[in-house]
Amino acid sequence: MIVLTGFMGAGKSTVGSMLAEKLGLPFVDIDIHIEQRRGRPVRTIFQEEGEQAFRQLEHEAILEIMCGSDAVVAVGGGAVEHPETRRTLRDHATVVYLVVSYDEAIQRIGHDVDRPMLHVDDVRGLYKRRLRVYEQSATLAIATDGRDPETVVLDLLSRIHDATGGERT
Ligand code: S3P
Questions:
Q1: What does the pLDDT look like over 8-49, one tens digit per residue?
Q2: Local confidence band at 165 (pLDDT 50, 70, 90 cut-offs)
Q3: Half-sphere CA count of 13, side-chain side, radius 13 A
Q4: Which residue owns the Cα nearest ligand 1 atom 12?
Q5: Distance between CA 26 and CA 17 in Å, rounded?
Q6: Which ligand 1 atom is the nearest neighbour of the CA of 6?
């Protein structure tokens, strides 16, 4: 399994689907998986059930996907804050942290109404708090600021090649 993490706007879904295509693997976006299962957008789940309930659904979805066949998987920006999710990822996946600066993330995604965590009181504080968690849970980290997704994917392919001893690429 290859799992992409990083803050909102890091490019997890874009880079993930391109990477999956290059590796000939299926691509799974955990947010979309949850939305399909629950029949409601993530934003509505947050509104109606709250963040904690969403985190639990997210954890269950990730566990299910990690126990299935090989894939490239994009997880939401808050997934690694759940301790059991961190454990699951550590046991099952090569975890790729897509690094994005706060300013560039906001520039890329603006104040998207579909991302409830962009509307908490202190988004910069959230970003800062998560940085260490992303770093600690990552197998490898890739810079994305000022780089287009194609460049990031090529960099990533060579880093995965090195990290897996050429087993995948
Ligand atoms: C979240 C990020 C979102 C989504 C949900 C919560 C977060 O995914 O899972 O809105 O807590 O950072 P993206 O990182 O793909 O935007």
A1: 999 999 999 999 999 999 999 999 999 999 999 999 999 999
A2: confident
A3: 10
A4: 77
A5: 8
A6: 14
Which residues, judged by CB distance below 6 Å to any ligand atom, belong to the binding site of ligand 1? Answer: 8, 12, 31, 42, 76-78, 115-117
- Please name the amino acid found at residue 159: R
Q: Long-range contacts: 65-71, Cβ < 8 Å, 24+?
A: 65/1, 65/28, 65/30, 65/33, 66/1, 66/91, 66/92, 66/93, 67/92, 69/26, 70/1, 70/25, 71/1, 71/2, 71/20, 71/25, 71/26, 71/27, 71/28
